[in-house]
Structures are given as C-alpha cells and as structure tokens.
Amino acid sequence: MATNIPAGLKYSKSDEWVRVEGNDLVIGITDFAQDALGDIVYLDLPKVGAQLAPGASFGVIESVKASSDLFAPVGGEVMAINTDLESNQEPINKDPYGAGWLIRIRPNGDEEELLDAAAYAAYCDERAH
Fold first, then answer.
1. Rounded distance between C-alpha atoms, residue 12 and residue 73, angstroms
2. What is the domain extent for residue 33?
3. Tens of pLDDT along 3-57?
4. Is residue 74 in a domain?
5. For residues 55 and 71, is the Cβ–Cβ distance under 8 A?
6. Any domain includes 5
7. For the chain, how many structural domains are there in total?
8. 128 inside domain
9. pTM score > 0.85 for this model?
C-alpha cells in the first residue's frame, strides 16, 4: 500500500498527524487511517474551547466500513475546528494533510510520544503485513 507520509509532520500511533503552525498545532488523521477507514461519511469534533488531554478521545470519525475514535496526540485547548467538514467529509479522503485537517489546538505541553515520518512509515509497514 502506497501511503502518503509527509516529512516535517509528527505522527501518533493512533494515526493522527500534528503540524506546528505558530503557537498552535493542527491535527488530522493520516493517509494510512483514512485509507483503512474508506469513504468518510460522518465526523464528530469537539467544541472550540474544549480542553484535551493527550491520548484522550476528542471525537468520532465514521466511514462506510467502520467507526473510530479520534485521539489527541497532545494536550491543550481547541482553538478551531474545520467547520468545512461538517457538511462534506470528502476533503479527509482527498487531502487528509491539507483541506482535511480536523482541529487546531493551543498545546499545554502534555503530549504522547510522537513519531517522525520515517518511524511512522515503519510502524504502518508493521501493521500492513
């Protein structure tokens, strides 16, 4: 399986990616996760202002195949959610690292162990076989 794993992002073992943008972190699901889920049909995200703990569920994503919890790779306050995805989840399938981003948080310093692109690619390969 040819999974897109951009360098420069950090990754969690629960298949979320993290991108630093100024003082905030943008979080979404990886290409590996969206490929495993298939076509996304429903998304439940937290409210702006919600406090997230690292490793805690922050929402649910559903596809035609399965439903999966979303897990916060870092702790912090939700500063924004991608409201474009409320009525159309297609960007998650087409562009999970761009238009398909899920939430923006202001981190509080608590984080899960995050992987770089090479380590995440190796982790995906392990699970694919």
1. 6
2. 11-109
3. 799 999 999 999 999 999 999 999 999 999 999 999 999 999 999 999 999 999 9
4. yes
5. yes
6. no
7. 1
8. no
9. yes
